[in-house]
Design brief:
This protein is mostly helical and 385 residues long. The chain has one domain: Growth Hormone, Chain: A (Up-down Bundle). Helices cover 83% and strands 0% of the residues. Helix 1 crosses helix 7.
């Protein structure tokens, strides 16, 4: 049954990753202004924040299964609406509801995975979950780019819609409901603000934001960079799939033991530094081989970062609060994408400058977290004296 949950994670993330190479050109075909393109790329993640938070409360109140099924069915239905879009306002409307209901999926799926994981093996468990995300990162961009180029963008949305609605039906029939999930006691015993103030959750949320700021910048800028360098648009999908392939190899190979050997906050910061270096190199890339090298490096950083920030959530929450914690966590994910794509779109930043900005955010977060963790450690030692 664990593998079925991983399959659902793949379906949920394919929805996101398949849009990376096609959404900027799709928005550009309706309104070519950079601000509108940035708004459309970011709108999904803006409404996704609200979906994540709503899902967190719903999960802790009624269990993850019903949230997962509802999210799959409704999101699949909304995807069909993309094929009917004819104006900028219609696209904004569809993107908003796509993000809102898509926000139910990931917190629900990762809550189920965390609840089934062993306390001392959450790092490895989240690495395997990361492999599912990595699989989506490999298949999604290539799928989106190839289907859009060979047939049309509409077919990308229709195929993913069919996969989501089918997955909802299978989840309804085969996914068991855990009694512990379904019998919630005082689901509102811990509000959002106390969760944010927990030191290790704060670290995780900061990591989530900076990761997805970089991811939002990548989603917005990489297709434009490929177009500027006059490479075939299909390479946008292939390059994005390269970072996913790199990450999934690290997740599945024996090296994944490092996620339970070292403290998660430190593997997280190491991953952020690697991501920053990759983006700086990508900003000056002018050839495909060098761009592929940059994406391999980016995938290595992602592989260090993603399981670590998820494991911090799993290890520093209880089953009564884990739904809200993951909901809030993925809200910071969404906020990062909104900030990355929308800010760079409003600035009209070139891909060279945009990647440097994203790298600066990553490095600033690393230094800030190091200082924050050092302060916490010093305060703890003083309290023990």
């Amino acid at each position: 049954m664990r593998y079925f949950i991983f399959f659902i994670v793949i379906v949920a993330f394919i929805d996101t990753f398949s849009q990376l190479p096609i959404m900027s050109p799709f928005a550009k075909s309706i309104d070519p202004s950079p601000a509108f393109i940035g708004l459309i790329v970011g709108m999904y993640s803006f409404s996704n924040m609200f979906g994540n938070i709503l899902a967190g409360f719903w999960i802790d109140k009624g269990g993850a299964k019903q949230v997962l099924i509802s999210g799959l069915a409704i999101t699949g239905s909304v995807l069909i609406l993309y094929t009917l879009v004819e104006s900028p306002m219609q696209l904004i409307f569809v993107r908003f509801f796509h993000g809102l209901f898509g926000g139910f999926l990931v917190p629900a799926a990762f809550t189920v995975i965390a609840n089934r994981g062993k306390a001392n093996k959450q790092g490895k468990s989240m690495a395997l979950s990361g492999a599912a995300v990595g699989s989506s990162a490999i298949m999604g961009p290539a799928f989106g780019a190839v289907i859009a180029a060979k047939y049309s963008v509409d077919w990308v949305f229709l195929i993913i819609a069919a996969a989501m609605i089918s997955s909802a039906a299978f989840a309804y029939v085969f996914l068991p409901s855990r009694r512990l999930e379904e019998k919630r006691i005082d689901a509102h015993s811990e509000r959002l603000m106390p969760l944010i103030k927990k030191p290790m959750l704060t670290v995780s949320y900061a990591g989530a934001f900076s990761l997805m700021f970089a991811q939002g910048a990548l989603a917005y800028l990489l297709p434009l960079q490929v177009d500027h360098l006059q490479f075939n648009s299909i390479f946008s999908g292939i390059l994005l799939s390269t970072f996913g392939l790199t990450a999934i190899l690290i997740f599945l190979l024996p090296i994944n033991k490092i996620f339970d050997k070292y403290k998660h906050q430190y593997t997280m910061m190491a991953g952020m530094a690697v991501l920053g270096i990759a983006l700086i190199l990508l900003s000056s890339a002018a050839s495909l081989p060098f761009m592929f090298f940059c994406m391999v490096l980016y995938g290595s950083g992602f592989a260090l970062l993603f399981p670590s920030i998820n494991a911090l959530i799993a290890n520093h929450t209880t089953e009564k609060t884990r739904g809200k914690a993951f909901g809030l966590f993925y809200a910071f994910f969404s906020l990062g994408v909104v900030a990355g794509s929308t800010l760079l779109g409003l600035l009209g930043a070139t891909f060279q400058f945009g990647f440097v900005i994203a790298a600066a955010v990553l490095f600033f977060t690393v230094f800030s977290l190091y200082a924050y963790l050092s302060k916490i450690s010093t305060s703890y030692l003083k309290s023990q004296e």
